[in-house]
Amino acid sequence: MHPALSTPPFEGPQVELRVLGRIRAASNATYLAEADLPGRAPVRCVWKPVAGERPLWDFPDGTLAAREVAAYALSAAAGFDVVPTTRLVETAQGIGALQTWVEVDEDLDDLVDLAPVGRIPEGWFGVVDAVDAYGREVTLMHRDDPRLRRLALFDAVTNNSDRKRVHLLPSGGQVLGCDHGLCFHVEPKLRTVLWGWAGARLRDDEVVLLERTRAVAAEVLGGLLTPAETAEVVARTDAVLASGALPVPQDSWPPIPWPPL
Question: Does the N-terminal or the C-terminal CB of the chain have fewer CB atoms within 10 Å?
Answer without folding.
Answer: N
